[in-house]
Amino acid sequence: MPKVDWRGLGRAFVFFWFFSAVCHALLLIAGATGFFPIRQGFIFSLLWLLPLLLFPRQAKPIAAIVGVVLWACSLVNLCYFIVYRQEFTQSVLFIVFESNPAEASEYLGQYFVWWMIPAALVYSAVAVWLWRGIRPLEMKPAVRWVMLALIGSALLLPPAIKVGRKYNFNPEALLNAYANRMEPAVPWQFVIGYSRYQDQLSQMQSLLSQNERIPPIANLVDSHAGEPRTLVLVIGESTNSKHMSLYGYPRNTTPKLDAMRDQLLIFNQAFASRPYTIEALQQILTFADQENPDLYLTKPSLMNIMKQAGYKTYWITNQQTLTQRNTMLTSFSQQMDEQVYLNHSRSQNSYQFDGNVLEPFKRVLNDGAERRFIVVHLLGAHMRYEYRYPPEFNVFKNRTNLPDWVTEAQASMINEYDNAILYNDYVMSRLIAELASAGGKSMMTYFSDHGEDVFDWPKHDFIGRNEGSPTPPMYTVPFFLWYSDQWKAAEKPRLNGYLNRTYQLSNFIHTWADLTGLHFEGFDSSKSVVNKAFKERPILVGNPANPQGLIDLRTKLGKAVKE
Question: What's the mean pLDDT when you consider all of the chain?
């Protein structure tokens, strides 16, 4: 009698792993995810060997029972991939469960293509064939217990050690670590996904209930009331204007926007207030700012105001939908009339191209509404940069027009970032073209939520963002306007004299009011960069929870700001 039936164990493991491996392999090949999910699927497929080791002579019926569950869950994953080329996650649950019945039916109505049936049959046949190879396991009891201990250690110890070092074995952090590692494996993406969906939904509903209790903005006056018009707000991501040729960067990273420079009103000194998406938009889209960070809790948001002004409102996003980090962002989108969620990925470290927004944007432009307010939220140049552009935009590959101090490793990452900027240029040009072709009076505003330091700041040793050690590239952002010919003919916007004003986007709601002809109680003309009464203010950066830690980017880092 062998001490360990390695062949039998191997056959059983391959059977269990099959259900996690196929879909993740397809996602990896399609470029929709990284290697982490397939690795975790491999590791946590070991879990199903435990009941076989406890009851070795019943290995085949136990595998059959477990296999049916894994087969059913994985088949949903497979079919979803066939249709959408994405992973089935908690975001999908949110879209289906929180849509009205008609929207959910429309969404699920796409959940069928004819070749799904033969694919499912082949998939099922392979699963049955693998199961037929499973046999009772023969090994000594002592060996079985050693195997149980080894597998248990492989599953439990790595997350525990990591959390222990970083969080001193915090129970919540430990559970979250196990959930993150288990979630890619069948069937845990459904169990954990549903649990997280419920948790995040509860948080979001609390935020929305809070928003609903805020009274409408007082004394709202629309100087263009009843006039057909389309207002588009495009929010970029992690885009440093100093990496755009539109702003003087020596590499040709924005050729399409450069070609339409005479159609754009480009603000040259725009800065974010926070280097993180949620915190930045919490101010940009509300009355909150660095000195009054909680005003979003008591005053209407930009989304509320636009609905109150009689616009039909839309939110099209390529950001993650319902995650622990993005719940606040999704609550903003839920304040709109209609939402289009395009990114169902569990992790930002997956291929997700902003070109996805073009089709729904075109569809919204053709929906027949006379007064539209459309927010388009891009992934822009979010880390990891290599996941933000398709292969044909892999243009920057060498050291051309890079400083001498750039190392080879740094050059590679700068190239990836610049390629992401290049693709963003393409997406923005397409959005403008679609808006122009729709006709009528329309305006598009574009800015990035925050910037990104890509080895730009002396000592040239940092990439990303860190509010505790702020540098100008983390806050320096593009900000420009485009108007349709019909709008320019009717309203003749003359803003050239305002383009070099130093401006922080935390005051954007006042600028937007001026641009769109809205006035209301609380409007401050001195905070609108397009108003002659505008007053330049300190560019306050840092965490407003610690007011003593706020600094003026102009004075502390003034030299670089002017460069």
Answer: 86
Give the torsion through C-alpha atoms of 27, 30, 32, 37, to 10 deg. 30
Q: Within a 13 Å sphere around the CA of 218, how many CA atoms are in the beta-carbon half?
A: 4
More confident residue, 291 or 492: 291
- The CATH number of whichever domain residue 262 belongs to comes to 3.40.720.10
pLDDT digits (tens, 9 = 90+) for 1-34: 446 778 888 898 899 888 888 888 887 777 666 6
Contacts of 367 (CB under 8 A, 6+ apart): none
State residue 425's pLDDT score: 98
Examine the domain organization and report whether 524 and 389 are in the same domain.
Answer: yes
Same domain, 218 and 175: no
Q: Could you tell me if 4 and 142 are in contact, meaning their C-beta atoms sit under 8 angstroms apart?
A: no
pLDDT single digits (tens) 372-413: 999 999 999 988 899 899 999 999 999 999 988 899 999 999
Identity of the residue numbered 372: R
Give the CB-side neighbour count of residue 396, counting CA atoms within 13 A.
27
Q: Is the pLDDT of residue 523 over 90?
A: yes
**Helices 188-212, 90-98: inter-axial angle, 10-degree rounding:** 50
- The verdict on 461 and 344 lying in the same domain is yes
Q: Are 217 and 300 in contact (CB under 8 A)?
A: yes
* Residue 379: other Cβ atoms inside 10 A: 26
Q: At what angle do helices 116-132 and 6-29 cross, to 10 degrees?
A: 160
Place of tokens 């699920």: 108
* Structural domain span for residue 20: 6-186
Domain count within the chain: 2
What is the Cα 29 distance to its own chain's centre? 21
Question: 85 Cβ partners below 8 Å, 6+ apart?
Answer: 30, 32
